[in-house]
Design goal:
With about 425 residues, the chain is an all-alpha fold. The protein is about 75% helix and about 0% strand. It contains 22 helices and no strands. The longest helix is centred in the first third of the chain and has 28 residues.
Length: about 425
Amino acid sequence: MSNAPRSANYTMSIVVIGALFFIFGFVTWLNGTLIPFLKLACDLHTDAQALLVTFAFYMAYFFLAIPSSMILGKTGFKNGMSLGLAVMAGGALLFIPAAMGRDFTLFLTGLFVQGMGLSLLQTASNPYISVIGPIESAASRISIMGICNKVAGAISPLILGAIVLSDASAIEQQIQSATDTVVRTQLLQELSQRVILPYGVMAAVLVLLAVMIRYSKLPEIDPGSEDKGGMHLGKTSIFQFPHTLLGALCIFVYVGVEVMAGDVISIYGKAIGISLDEAKNFTSYTLWSMVAGYILGIFTIPKWISQEKALAISAIVGALFSGLAYVTDGYLSIVFIALLGFANALMWPAIFPLAIDGLGSFTKIGSALLIMGIAGGAIIPQIYARLAPSLGPPAAFFWIVLPCYIYIFYFARKGHRAGRGPVTISA
């Protein structure tokens, strides 16, 4: 690393990266509001169509994870973060013609482009915050970044929902009762154009931040030559590390259940008879419960409990809340789904380090493989959308997320040690 600043420059670096993590959360969790909004504005007929929102967004990580590492090798971390913000701005701008033409495909393209920018931005900023300061305080910095991310995620659906889904139930009723095609089309057009202002402002802010970071005094980091630990173990491929492959699958199912709890909750609520005026805010409830879980983790890991035990307990709690959501009705069922945010909060911080531990020179490609696992947020909601019409929303939700939590428990107990021999698990 370059000479690590310990003064105001160091503090400013933390503030800037914290702002980036805030943006991650803000943009990512807008999807919870966009799903019901685009279903209504684009006159979509099924939840499977509406959930293409998460499909387009999260599949970008699958395609861009490895290329992002290559791009950063050429641009450096600071310029890479600036480029990621610019790409995200481009995705936001695509919402303007998409809204004017009520073009769902163009909306999805904008979401995919935003996901591309976020993939690059996250690939740069996650290691940056780890090495920008003293290694012994890295965990504290990562925890702060996580809170910035989740607080933004809790706020963003409320802001966008208040703008684009104001009086949503009344508008929905007007659209459904309109018999004149011209009147109905006009109502849909007016609704669709509500996203133009917020996404135009978002694009402007992202461009401004990209320029600020490009010309900022953020120190460029040099992670140094990679540890050759993987090579001295006689390994020649990332596929010779079973715990990492199992970890990539664990990331896949974890992100899937996180998106189910955070983004699918709104259409789940509407499917069980709750009005859109209320359901549009449900994503925020999940994110606030994630913030609570994150704060709990800061004070308990690793002082009172190891990360692998925290992961196992989180999986058990997730399975329990899933079951309670299944056997209850109405708002109580929504409460238990929102509480899945609390169960999910500590999973990423636990899965990622367990999955890349001991990779040595294969750490970079291993990390990219794990990032590709974020595609679970694209695939698992689509499975739900296809099962819900036949099984019913509660049963479909439960039978999809329960196996995911069972697998996460397996990874916490045994999977993270696969191919590595006996490991003593600390308390």
